[in-house]
Design goal:
Layout lengths: L11 H37 L8 H19 L2 H9 L69 E3 L6 E3 L14 H13 L4 H10 L6 H14 L1 H11 L4 E11 L8 E9 L7 E6 L5 H6 L5 E4 L5 H8 L4 E4 L8 H7 L5 H23 L4 H26 L8 H11 L1 H4 L13 H9 L2 H13 L2 H5 L8 H21 L6
Parallel strand pairs: 3-6, 6-7
Antiparallel strand pairs: 1-2, 3-4, 4-5
């Protein structure tokens, strides 16, 4: 209905209809403005704000004190105290002060500072003094890395009659007809994929030691190393897919394309096995469609902990009873993040849920501190976490009708209730985790993203090289990503199992 401000009707009914129409338009625009402001706040926080989702303790006290008090009252019941007393209790470890002892694995070089012969004579009776002990102190020293050349000499022997010449066979090399030895290759690989140093920085480090070593040469070395450990990657994948639970996540990466004047967005998928199969495997796809994970996990049977990405739904539906969906309580864009972002518009409801989630993580912290096995952790979750989960569901179902539509808090409540069965799985199996912190660690923070940021400008300056096609017919950009992921996966696994990558 069009409204002419100069010719308004005089009938009260029509005027009432116009007012209601205007109020509806204003309400719709207010909702749109509120949503845009919320999105702008999240973008500004991601761009300039802190990454850690720290909750204000004062808000928790104001809006969730009754929740914490109720949980403490349950813990103080006689039955709870008896069950706690019946278990094995350990005195809380208190961090001491002072210097930590140096690791026993470090090499010790004994340097003795002894007295001269004349100084070992007693000043009073002039008799030789007897050794009764020693004072030992330690000083940590660093031996700088150095380059040296190994000359592989093979003496040649010839027959005096001219029958022929013989020599010892040439020893096997890490790269056929290549210059580097295994130690140099290991240093470059650990620096690039373990410490995320770009090759141009390594080029400068070697230059300070008097060696001109181009980044193109080192890049070829890393490609050859990745090919040599590709069978290790395949074996890691096979063992990882035998896990009881697999965690997965994806991260976007810019990829050069010969058909485009700009980079396109590819996806790197991270798959992490359980503690009995502690392997991390990376896979690359040109898009975020579900075909990539479905193909990678084709032979897998068990729990799959991921986010609520819609393309996963078809995979869970088509492989019902083979893949069991387990959702994450913490990380982007999951339950805790939704309510954390909703604080700006509905601080009361969001903070209450965050307080509940904090209680869930208190239970997980207790399980880690007590070093519980899977069965003990399941029993602890059933006794403490399950009542909290019931309270969360009841609270969300009670608050949902009171929430205005198209609000951030409504999205958070809908997300949680829609995936509620998948959010409860971790309370039904002690081997499952409350979140997929490990895969997020390997993907977003210290694994791929840091290295991609450090190497981003290198790829931009190598557009022509990346647009060529390799000998196998695979574009260099895609082949380079595959080799990078193989090397990164091996290096990340070495870090996870606490072994020295070299």
């Amino acid at each position: 209905m069009e409204i002419d401000a100069q010719n308004l009707p005089e009938e009260a009914g029509l005027l009432r209809q116009i007012v209601l129409q205007l109020l509806g338009v204003v309400d719709e625009k207010d909702r749109l403005l509120e949503r845009v402001q919320h999105q702008l706040q999240q973008l500004l926080r991601q761009r300039y704000g802190p990454k850690r989702e720290r909750v204000d303790e004062n808000q928790l006290f104001l809006f969730a004190a009754q929740i914490i008090a109720a949980a403490q009252a349950k813990a103080a019941e006689p039955g709870a105290q008896g069950s706690r007393a019946s278990g094995t209790t350990k005195r809380a470890h208190v961090k001491g002060h002072g210097r930590k002892p140096l690791p026993a694995s470090l090499e010790r070089r004994r340097v003795v500072f002894d007295l001269e012969e004349a100084q070992r004579q007693c000043r009073d009776c002039q008799k030789p003094m007897q050794r009764i002990g020693e004072d030992v102190s330690e000083r940590l020293e660093f031996v700088p890395a150095s380059l040296h050349v190994i000359e592989e000499v093979r003496p040649k022997y010839a027959c005096a009659s001219g029958c022929g010449v013989v020599a010892a066979p040439k020893p096997a090399a890490a790269i056929e007809k290549g210059l580097p030895g295994p130690g140099l290759l290991a240093q470059v690989a650990v620096s690039k994929y373990g410490d995320h140093l770009p090759l141009y920085r390594l080029e400068g480090i070697f230059r300070r030691q008097g060696l001109e070593l181009s980044r193109q040469t080192m890049c070829d070395w890393m490609g050859a190393c990745a090919e040599q450990v590709s069978q290790v990657w395949e074996r890691m994948k096979q063992v990882m897919l035998t896990s009881k639970a697999v965690q997965t996540d994806d991260t976007p990466v810019p990829v050069l394309d010969a058909e485009l004047t700009r980079t396109r967005t590819g996806r790197i998928w991270t798959y992490v096995g359980d503690p009995n199969h502690p392997y991390i495997v990376y896979d690359y796809t040109g898009n975020r469609r579900g075909q990539g994970p479905a193909e990678f996990l084709r032979s897998y049977r068990g729990y799959l902990q991921a986010d609520a990405y819609p393309d996963y739904d078809a995979m869970f539906k088509n492989r019902y009873c083979e893949l069991i969906e387990v959702l994450c309580w913490a990380h982007v864009p999951h339950v805790r993040r939704y309510f954390y972002e909703a604080q700006a518009k509905d601080v009361a409801r969001a903070t209450v849920v965050l307080a509940y989630v904090g209680l869930l993580y208190d239970v997980e912290r207790e399980a880690r501190d007590r070093h519980l096995n899977a069965d003990q952790r399941l029993a602890l979750r059933q006794s403490k976490s399950r009542p909290i989960l019931d309270d969360i569901k009841n609270y969300l179902e009670a608050e949902k009708p009171k929430v205005l539509p198209k609000r951030p808090i409504e999205d958070a409540i809908d997300y949680t209730l829609k995936g509620w069965p998948a959010l409860l799985w971790y309370c039904q199996d002690g081997d499952l985790e409350i979140d997929k912190a490990m895969v997020s660690y390997c993907t977003s923070f210290r694994g791929l993203s840091r290295g991609c940021v450090n190497r981003e400008h290198v790829s931009r300056h190598r557009v022509k090289w990346e647009q060529r096609v390799s000998a196998t017919g695979v574009p260099f950009a895609q082949d380079a990503i595959r080799k990078r992921l193989i090397a990164t996966a091996v290096m990340t696994c070495c870090k996870r199992v606490l072994t020295r990558p070299r």
